[in-house]
Amino acid sequence: MQKAKLRPTLSYYNALLDMYCNIGRVKDALDIFDKLNEDRIEPDVISYTTLIKLYCSLGELGDAEEVQLNMQRKYKVRPGLRAYLLLLDAYGKVSVA
Question: What is the mean pLDDT of residues 10-27?
Fold first, then answer.
């Protein structure tokens, strides 16, 4: 993409982020999120929800909550229903275990 001087879009980054999360490549997923910020593309509800999904799947509920709080307070992005359901599901699994 860089050779053709095409600029990646938010949708492109979100697709990569989701793919890396789904195959368990945590470092790559976090690198993509950082790259999104480096390219001065503002993450959206999908970007943040994907990060929440990643942290919940790892059992890192503190990090998932931090993403959820930052998206609201710092970035002014309202979490969608999916973000809350991911957190509720993760906490349900922790309390059962």
Answer: 95
